[in-house]
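Severity: low
Component: inverse-folding endpoint
Summary: output formatting inconsistent between runs
Steps to reproduce: submit the following structure tokens with default settings.
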């Protein structure tokens, strides 16, 4: 069975689920909230991992691996840090048929696993900076509706945990990493994001401040936290005793950061670019960037069949030599039309047709997956043109998504304008006093029968001009900055 029955502008959730399953990215699994990442989606995680890993290694970050398990005592090192999260911690309580005398937690994140050892390893300023990262899975037994890639009880991520001697070094890294996250989304996944700082209510309680890249799904008006980079200050180093002797022979607590990007990024890419025919993959992360489909004409003699096979082999060789990740679909048990649907469903950025007319004319017909545009090219121009066309597709996919994202942000200065923007499933960028009371107020006043009110996504790093005397659109107090909000559903 090929193709989708749901429409992206119809039942979005059903459309999304069909796309990720029919394109063979995901299989549902018999433990609820868990999914199988099949090769087609794992290849995208590989691309993201290869790029990001090379970047952080260039910054001097090293990879390591810490255990999956956390003892109850260690997890509870900072009771109030954990208490809000306690319901989502998964525990091992027995092995075989013998109960463990103390339950052991499965890591939901690794601060409490790593930091007691950071305290052992860091003694002197010479041991700093210590910058470790791990590519792992984590488990959070969430009860909200699970969605492939977006919210699952086990997911893959990288978690970076770094220690510095000074606040300045730590803060610089927070923003360096945040920009790498922006680049993962904008340059690899062609997904626009907004860089910002979380409000005090939305930030991670253990952090001094939290920075984030926020994505947006116009179809359902939902903002999505796409990655996060925290400055932890000295909160955790004081909690875990990560102290060092400074050059002036004084004792000081390390300044720490932690930062994470998860497989949610794949889901955001699917939601942003997919259409009613299925996936649309950005060429940078597409395992198959182009598929060549030779179309034999059974009426012609075997010399035509041989010529087609030879030409296909020539084109394959030339494009692979040009660095194009190409597949040739030579299956003789499917029609060309069937193959077109098959590769469109899988979002392959470029189809190259080689039919009888093309053979006569010495050309190949190129069809773009993102726009459907077709163009024919002489064989000897393919090796130069196809890589450029793939780059053009990447840039235009980003450009279209960026302008749609920007069109979904409405500047507001009054409560009514704020509610109107949210009701249009847009984000609202408004001047506010940046106080928790204002956020509580927004959440309560905006909660109407169907939506659960609004929440703030972030305080964008890139702030509009705040005219003196501008008032908070919620409390009427003097505004401090602009905050980006969206409907919570
Ligand atoms: O977001 C990141 C980036 C990567 C490293 N970690 C931080 C903070 C994670 C917050 N957080 C998030 N979720 C959690 C869930 C839990 F069950 C427990 Cl016990 C703790 C947490 C928790 O601390
Ligand atoms: Mg959570």
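Observed output (run 2 of 3):
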């Amino acid at each position: 069975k090929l193709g989708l029955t749901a429409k992206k502008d119809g039942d979005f959730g059903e459309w999304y689920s069909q796309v990720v399953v029919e394109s063979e990215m995901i299989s549902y699994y018999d433990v609820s909230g868990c999914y199988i990442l099949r090769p087609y989606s794992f290849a995208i995680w590989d691309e993201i991992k290869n790029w990001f890993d090379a970047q952080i290694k260039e910054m001097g970050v090293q990879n390591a691996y810490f255990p999956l398990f956390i003892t109850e005592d260690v997890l509870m090192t900072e009771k109030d840090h954990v208490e809000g999260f306690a319901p989502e911690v998964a525990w091992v309580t027995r092995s075989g048929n013998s109960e463990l005398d103390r339950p052991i937690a499965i890591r939901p994140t690794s601060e409490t696993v790593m930091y007691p050892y950071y305290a052992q390893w860091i003694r002197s300023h010479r041991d700093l900076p210590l910058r470790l990262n791990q590519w792992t899975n984590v488990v959070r037994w969430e009860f909200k509706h699970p969605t492939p890639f977006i919210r699952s009880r086990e997911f893959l991520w990288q978690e970076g945990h770094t220690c510095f001697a000074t606040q300045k070094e730590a803060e610089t890294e927070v923003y360096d990493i945040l920009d790498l996250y922006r680049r993962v989304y904008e340059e690899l996944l062609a997904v626009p994001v907004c860089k910002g700082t979380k409000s005090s209510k939305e930030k991670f309680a253990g952090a001094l401040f939290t920075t984030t890249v926020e994505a947006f799904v116009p179809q359902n008006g939902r903002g999505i936290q796409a990655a996060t980079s925290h400055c932890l200050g000295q909160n955790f180093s004081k909690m875990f005793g990560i102290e060092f002797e400074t050059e002036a022979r004084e004792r000081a607590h390390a300044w720490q950061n932690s930062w994470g990007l998860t497989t949610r990024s794949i889901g955001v890419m699917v939601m942003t670019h997919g259409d009613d025919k299925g996936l649309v993959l950005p060429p940078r992360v597409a395992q198959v960037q182009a598929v060549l489909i030779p179309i034999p004409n059974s009426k012609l003699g075997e010399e035509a069949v041989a010529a087609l096979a030879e030409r296909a082999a020539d084109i394959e060789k030339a494009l692979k030599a040009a660095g194009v990740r190409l597949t040739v679909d030579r299956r003789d048990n499917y029609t060309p039309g069937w193959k077109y649907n098959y590769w469109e469903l899988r979002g392959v950025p470029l189809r190259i047709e080689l039919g009888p007319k093309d053979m006569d004319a010495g050309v190949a017909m190129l069809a773009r997956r993102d726009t459907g545009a077709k163009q024919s090219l002489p064989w000897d121009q393919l090796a130069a043109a196809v890589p450029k066309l793939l780059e053009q597709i990447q840039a235009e996919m980003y450009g279209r998504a960026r302008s749609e994202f920007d069109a979904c942000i409405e500047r507001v200065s009054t409560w009514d304008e704020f509610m109107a923007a949210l009701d249009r499933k847009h984000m609202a960028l408004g001047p506010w006093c940046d106080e928790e009371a204002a956020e509580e107020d927004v959440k309560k006043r905006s909660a109407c029968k169907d939506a659960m009110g609004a929440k703030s996504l972030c305080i964008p790093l890139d702030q509009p001009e705040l005219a003196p005397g501008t008032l908070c659109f919620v409390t009427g107090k003097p505004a401090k900055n602009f905050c980006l909000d969206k409907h919570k559903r």
